[in-house]
Amino acid sequence: MSAAAASTVTFESRFATELAEMGIPWKAEEVPNPRLLVLNEPLAAELGFDPGFLRSPEGLRLLIGNDVPAGAAPVAQAYSGHQFGGFSPRLGDGRALLLGEISDAGGRLRDIHLKGSGRTPFARGGDGFAVVGPMLREYIVSEAMHALGIPTTRSLAVVATDRPVQRETVLPGAVLTRVAGSHLRVGSFQYARVAGDDGLLRRLADHAIARHYPDAAEADNPYLALFDAVIGAQAALLARWMLVGFIHGVMNTDNMAISGETIDYGPCAFMDAFDPATVYSSIDENGRYAYANQPLIAEWNLTRLAEALLPLFDDDEERAVERAQESLGEFRRQYSSAWLAGMKAKLGLHGGVADDVASHLIDDLLGLLQEGRVDYTSFFRRLGSAARGNGGPARSMFTEPDAFGAWTERWRTLNPDADRMDRVNPAYVPRNHLVEEALAAGTNGDLEPLGRLLEAVTDPYNERPGVERYKEAAPESFGPYRTFCGT
Asked: Is the pTM of the predicted complex or chain greater than 0.70?
């Protein structure tokens, strides 16, 4: 039985059809013996797939692109990108394919996308494959981000290929099946602009409006409205990253999605000890994408998007630049507003607390956390106990607790809401030492640590017995920590 016959999901090929200049039709490498490592059954059901079918031999072939369902037209997408500040006009999916689009249970169009499916014409010397560890990392972290309420691509499955892949050592291969609102990136618009085809640029913008921001079509200037909507989505997204201590690691323009979803979980990590200068990525030698720099880099990337869209903003270049600058000025205001509101929630402060009072309190607290190198996630979770009158757990995290005690007295006068704090301060995030433990075991065929970690991080706010080790900070013996993109 073919995948097309067995699956009731209807595939489309809108991107491949509407923007043919931005994709190369391609096929995934054949995998003789695919083996399922992990399947996201709730997401499968949300997308209309029968999980039992996806576990079958025919379903596995669909998940890795070896059986192409009716209506799908796999393409390797083309895009440009600023990588660590340097511009590459032709990047594209070197080891990935957009299989097609489907409508989920809510009628929302979603991309089904493969990662590690083999070399494409954009591979630039790479082998086109992926290995088990990094694909499991993306599965873990993207599903944790979803559980935290942060817009993100999702992971539907990781399938082992049993193909040995050469990295520093020989590692087992895998394909990730990824789900996204779309894979339109800032780099997609840069590619269209570099092509010098204003018609293509306009069609791409129209495609993005229809896909993500349909209200923009009714605006006096739809393309400026699109840009404003992307700014708002990215400001909200970056604030959410910062509030949970997430560090993306590679915020190149080809890794910023127009939809406002987090995309491409390469050398990503959650911050352990609070330090704004934290960098985990092995390739970020100068700290360009350090934790504290992320909002600034987002603004920089959005400026590159504005440059790409200028011909659509106004026929007069000077007026187009003025309009772009006016819109860009909103990013910092929107980001700061979202971040401050989120920090007030983390501290349990009610809406009546003045912003300047809250800001001073927050600044002083972050200074104490940095000075004491206090674990970020654990501290805010323990602070809920302090709001209930038990300050010991949080106080014990400081080697010199008197300053924190003085801060606590100021904070407690504002009557913080402990229940509200527990709803926004997670007990469980994908802690780096636990992620590495799960990846090492999974690479060697043991998926139990992966399952236990996923159970904890996909229910992050519900503190419960039996998973205590998943809320503990990394041991002192762990580190300094570095992450790798896996290519």
From this structure: yes
Beta strands per DSSP E along 224-300: 246-247, 269-270
On whether the CB atoms of residues 324 and 306 are closer than 8 A, the answer is yes
The active-site residue, picked from 93, 111, 254, 422, is: 254
Q: Are residues 222 and 323 in the same domain?
A: yes
The reported pLDDT for the residue numbered 5 is: 41
Mean predicted confidence (pLDDT) in 362-377: 97
Q: Give the tens place of pLDDT for each residue, 252-289.
A: 999 999 999 999 999 999 999 999 999 998 889 899 99
C-alpha dihedral, 203 to 204 to 205 to 211, nearest 10°? 110
Q: What are the two backbone dihedrals, phi and then psi, of residue 142, each rounded to the nearest 5 degrees? A: -65, -40
- Indicate whether 167 and 91 sit together in one domain: yes
Residues 27 and 109 in one domain: yes
Distances from the Cα of 64 to the Cα of 3, 8, 61, 99, 164, angstroms: 11, 18, 5, 9, 16
Q: Indicate whether 1 pLDDT > 50.
A: no
What type of residue sits at position 87? F
Would residue 254 show up in a list of annotated catalytic residues for this protein? yes
Side-chain-facing half-sphere of 229: CA atoms under 13 Å: 22
Residue among 386, 378, 384, 382 at smallest CA distance from 408: 386
Residues 6+ apart with CB under 8 A from 247: 241, 268, 269, 270, 271, 278, 279, 280, 281, 289, 290, 291, 294
Residue 266's φ and ψ, nearest 5 degrees, are -90, -110
Count Cβ neighbours within 10 Å for each residue of 277-294 and write b for 16 or more, e otherwise.
Answer: ebbbbebbeeebbbbebb
- pLDDT tens digits, one per residue of 283-324: 898 999 999 999 999 999 999 999 999 999 999 999 999 999
Compute the C-alpha angle 55/484/233, nearest 5°: 75
- Residue 38's DSSP bridge partners are 158
Q: Where are the beta strands (DSSP E) in 386-465?
A: none
Residue numbers of the domain that contains 56: 3-183
For 37, 83, 89, 121, 304, the CA distances from 86, given in Å and listed in that order, are 37, 5, 10, 21, 12
Last residue within a domain, chosen from 183, 199, 225 = 183
303 CB-near residues (< 8 Å, 6+ apart): 328
Mean pLDDT across 352-360 = 97
- What b/e sequence results for 351-389 when a residue is b if at least 16 CB atoms lie within 10 Å of its CB, and e otherwise? eebeeeebeebbebbeebbeebebbbbbbbbbbbbbbee
Q: Does residue 154 sit in the same domain as residue 225?
A: no
Whether the per-residue pLDDT at 3 is higher than 60: the answer is no
Pairing of β 23-25 and β 109-115: unpaired
Tokens read off for 313: 């903003």
